[in-house]
Amino acid sequence: MDKRFKHTLVAFKICPYCMKVLTVMCHKNIKFEIKFIEIHNKPDWFIKISPLEKVPILIIGEEVVLFESAAIMEYIDEITPPKLMPDDPIQKALDRAKFEYSNEIIKNLYQFIFTTEQEKFVKLKEWLIKRFQQMGEWLKDKKYVNGLELSLVDLNFVPVFVVLNMLKPILPCDILKDQKRLQNYGESLTSLSCAKTGRVPDYEFLMIDGIKNKNTVLFRSNPCYFNGPQASRCLFFGK
Ligand SMILES: N[C@@H](CCC(=O)N[C@@H](CS)C(=O)NCC(=O)O)C(=O)O
Question: How far is the CA of 54 from the centre of ligand 1 (A)?
Fold first, then answer.
């Protein structure tokens, strides 16, 4: 398999795992088509080909269907040298573990954002703060997880910081407070051009809409931010 094959990514607009894959595809300048589906109303053709009925999947050529964001990211990286994944077996294994670590953070971050239960909200916030402290330790004297150079593992964390950036003006308590290393890391990641191009243009609108419509704890604690014109400016135009 190589990049001469046609690549079609099947995605859901606010899926963070799809964002990871999109970020790598944009970083590696790979040509692809994208098909969006609604995960609450999955089309039959998708159910037939996606082994876990989840996005993202990457259709290569006519027959091969890759699933799981980590596997897709590594595949894209392999066919577009120079590789962002390290060669050293120990480093590679550590990085793969951190792929999974980022998935856990993303899962809990989304639950934190969309929960309607106050108690769960508080517990998730504590859990996230602990993980971010741990990540801060990993980033001691480093710009990226593996040092000065960007690696594939870093692109796994792009959705985390895109979401945190979007919510910065509205989080009741900044969960990256006193976390200078993580703040710098987040800035380095979100200023990569692939982090800007690797997501759908209406991502923020859709997230905010979801947070409002579900009457989440986050919305209830900051309704004016979600409804007021000043919020639209902060959130959508980076002010
Ligand atoms: N481990 C998977 C997680 C993918 C995932 O959970 N995708 C969600 C959307 S964000 C999905 O397709 N959910 C549909 C479902 O669970 O039925 C990956 O990394 O690709």
Answer: 4
